[in-house]
């Protein structure tokens, strides 16, 4: 199966976005994929702020993108766009860091007014990074993501089903890519 890099662009340690991604990571792992989580907020701020391409953490993050067959990018929506923290990382990646990759864009936010952030803010930058295939993304309202006292995540039924569908479509696209690569090898 494929190697998936699951990137959370949330600056918050208690992020619903990151928890939602880890929930989807479990689904992808159950489907046989190797999932590597990357929380951008754990990268050294000085490396991101100074655009230090040679910083060991940035070099390591870049290598994770290189090794991945697919990438899940999750971000909270702020001011109708993806997070500045995510932008800081994406700006430090090589121009075609997503070349040959299948990508699933996901976003969370407080209002349906931000639904189009995936298509009008995030998708263009993913495309400019050379993504081979950007699968349909999904926007989940914050109110549809509940974290229990024990840390368990619950997604409201109206959001859970379409979220599972886009995740499964991404998984199928990865499997198709793997089959195609094996056939051409």
TrEMBL record:
Domain of life: Bacteria
Gene3D superfamilies in the record: 3.40.50.360
One of the Pfam families matching this protein, by short name: FMN_red
Enzyme class: oxidoreductase
Molecular function GO labels: FMN reductase (NADPH) activity
InterPro entries in the cross-refs: Flavoprotein-like_sf, FMN_Rdtase-like_dom, NAD(P)H-dep_FMN_reductase, NADPH-dep_FMN_reduc_SsuE
EC number, UniProt record: 1.5.1.38
Keyword line: Flavoprotein, FMN, Oxidoreductase
Domain called NADPH-dependent FMN reductase-like: residue spans: 3-144
Protein name as annotated: FMN reductase
């Amino acid at each position: 199966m494929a190697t998936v890099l699951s990137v959370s662009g949330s600056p918050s340690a208690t992020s619903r976005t990151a928890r939602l991604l880890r929930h989807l990571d479990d689904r992808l792992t159950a489907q046989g994929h190797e999932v590597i989580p990357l929380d951008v907020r754990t990268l050294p701020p000085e490396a991101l702020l100074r655009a230090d391409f040679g910083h060991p953490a940035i070099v390591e993050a870049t290598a994770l993108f290189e090794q991945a067959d697919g990438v899940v990018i999750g971000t909270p929506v702020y001011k109708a766009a993806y997070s500045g923290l995510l932008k800081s990382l994406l700006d430090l990646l090589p121009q075609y860091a997503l070349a040959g990759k299948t990508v699933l864009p996901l976003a969370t936010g407080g209002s349906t007014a931000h639904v189009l952030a995936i298509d009008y803010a995030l998708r263009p930058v993913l495309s400019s990074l050379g993504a081979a295939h950007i699968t349909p993304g999904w926007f989940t309202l914050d109110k549809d993501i509940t974290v229990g006292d024990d840390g368990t995540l619950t997604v409201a039924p109206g959001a859970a089903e379409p979220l599972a569908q886009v995740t499964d479509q991404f998984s199928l696209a990865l499997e198709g890519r793997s089959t195609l690569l094996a056939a051409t090898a």
